[in-house]
Amino acid sequence: MKVALVTGSARRLGRAIVERLAREGHAVWVHFRTSEDEAVEVQEAIRAAGGTASRVQGDLATEAGVQDIVAAVQDASGRLDVLVNNVGRYDIADPMTYERGAFEDTLATNLLGPFELIRAAAPLFPEAGGSIVNIGYSGLNALAASADNLAYVVSKTGLLVVTRTFAEVLGPRGIRVNMVSPGQLENSVDLPADFAARVPLGRAGRLDDVCDAVSWLASDGASYVTGQDIEVAGGYMMGLDDDRA
Question: Which positions are annotated as active-site residues?
């Protein structure tokens, strides 16, 4: 049975992804930092549905937290086939007043955490390789300015470079590294009232839309796909220079 770890999977998109992978036959690890009650709920729900689930606590913003996560997976499962770096701290703030400490915390969680986790977890992947999927955001490749969530944008832009770098470094081992970048989702904290006018496909994204992309990248069907950023956004942010931006 293949083993999958999804960071930040006690809630929201992370929960949807870990439950999808469990339904598809993976033995999953539900990761949390502080949301233990919710992580237990997810774990029990997966087990009740006939799946295999464990849970692990760890702060991705610290090296010790990353090492604790990897050690738990290694001790209990002995391997890892799929890693989904889903955790993403998201602050809306004026860049002129945004505190340095908060900026650093965002970079530590969203960028340094996945960077360290990929390096620490890579030895757990079998000789047959596996799949690493990092979660970004729609419009990432445009390198657009952001007056509202600068630290988040910087961290996810860096994560795209990390994605492509490890795709090259880990490719010879058969480990594929890709990114999935959602647009406006139905549960987004900043879903605009007029999203139908901003999204060519006319609706907000569903969690299942993102899970479909992650599931495919984790499967053998994507065995020759690496270093890619797949936008799941309904066309959102394609026209950065028009009135949908």
Answer: 152
